[in-house]
Write a structure and sequence with these properties.
396 residues, alpha+beta, 2 domains, six-stranded antiparallel β-sheet, 12 helices
Length: 396
């Protein structure tokens, strides 16, 4: 059996995730809420929404709001456009805010239930703490699905409308290889946008092999190029032919000079060039899967590992909604007269620790120190371990 490609693996993983999600939705539909479940769920939902709104305001206010105000003053955009820009910034924050909201909301709810001795009464009549947490866990499952959809759909749409997917930039380098993996061409692009490629230099490697140096048979300069269906067409070209001693022997002018003429090569290299300046959030999960395949084929190892890690995070990050819901319930539970600041302090530490260390794990994966899946899943493993430790400490 042939080994599965990355795209096939991701497709299988998406099918499994979809089937499990539908199974979870059916269980949620068939779940009958008791009066106690409805009471706890109403309290958690209300507290979560408040925490969610506060987190979004705090996240957006310092930097994003300042940038929009600056645009209003300097670029003379209207109030309607400013409000639109502010709304489009919300999805990028929402994906991060949802786990925080359920964590703080469940802590606040269970802290209040503990303070009023309601949890002690419920446990005293034989209701286990796991049963009390059940409606919160189900709510966390619903939020995890919503969080996944926000990352996969809303964030890319908002980012595209904000103009983050234009793909313009400068300085792109691509090495075309022969079948034996020896270098064939070195393509250097000084500037580009989605329509046109500017200032291209193509270094054609010589066929002769030398042990002490790499030689070129010609160097091609063109001020502009256009991507066509089967090639990149360079225009107004100067070709500097080089002899074996590295000396220019002839300069030839051509109106047109095609490169990247192999099957699908022109489109693949063009996609790589445009996407090098795009941020991860403008991609859907399917687009990241395709892009990682191109990066692997082009031997862009660092970028390949980085985007592969981000793809795994897209699937694993929503699980924090469920785990944070459980952690919040555990941290919120305390004897009526105990110190309550400890649970909130631990929760704030978890939030900052999680979001601050994410770039660190991204870097470890990008440099090959950790496998991508390990880097993406390590925080999730820590949260699961934390749940068992907190349950053990609190003797629940």
């Amino acid at each position: 059996m042939w080994p599965l490609t990355l795209l096939q693996k991701n497709f299988i993983w998406e099918k499994i995730l979809y089937s499990k999600t539908m199974e979870l939705i059916n269980k949620i539909k068939n779940f009958k809420l008791s009066l106690l479940d409805k009471f706890i769920l109403s309290q958690v939902i209300g507290a979560t929404l408040v925490c969610l709104i506060l987190f979004i305001i705090v996240w957006i206010a310092p930097e994003t709001l300042f940038k929009i105000i600056k645009k209003v003053l300097n670029e003379h955009i209207g109030l309607t456009m400013a409000v639109k820009l502010l709304i489009l910034e919300i999805p990028k924050v929402l994906a991060k805010a949802i786990p925080v909201g359920i964590l703080l909301g469940s802590i606040f709810t269970f802290d209040r239930l503990s303070k009023n001795s309601e949890l002690s009464i419920l446990r005293g009549i034989g209701i286990s703490f796991n049963r009390i947490m059940l409606p919160v866990i189900y709510f966390g499952c619903i939020l995890s699905i919503f969080c996944y959809m926000v990352n996969d759909k809303l964030v890319p749409i908002a980012s595209q409308k904000l103009g983050e997917s234009r793909g313009g930039g400068s300085h792109f380098v691509y090495i075309v290889e022969n079948q034996d993996k020896s270098p064939k061409q070195n393509i250097i692009v000084s500037n580009f946008d989605p329509e046109t490629i500017f200032d291209i230099t193509v270094m054609n490697f010589a066929h002769e092999e030398y042990t002490d140096a790499t030689t070129f048979e010609s160097i091609v300069f063109a001020p502009i190029a256009k991507k066509q269906d089967n090639c990149w067409m360079l225009k107004d070209v100067l070709i500097y032919q080089i002899d074996k001693n590295g000396i220019y022997k002839k300069i030839i002018h051509k109106d047109f000079y095609p490169i990247l003429q192999e099957k699908n090569q022109a489109q693949e290299v063009f996609d790589l060039m445009l996407n090098t300046t795009r941020k991860e959030r403008v991609f859907t999960n399917h687009q990241i899967s395709k892009y990682t395949k191109l990066l692997k084929k082009a031997n862009f190892s660092d970028e390949y590992r980085y985007f592969k890690t981000k793809l795994y995070q897209r699937y694993l990050h929503p699980l924090t909604c469920i785990l944070f819901a459980i952690i919040g319930c555990l941290l919120g539970f305390a004897p009526p007269r105990s110190q309550r600041l400890i649970g909130f302090t631990i929760a704030v530490g978890i939030i900052f620790g999680y979001y601050i260390t994410l770039p660190f794990f991204d870097l470890l994966a990008q440099k090959g120190v950790l496998p991508s899946f390990v880097a993406a899943g390590f925080p999730i493993v820590l949260f699961i371990i934390s749940i068992f430790i907190i349950k053990k400490v609190k003797d629940l």
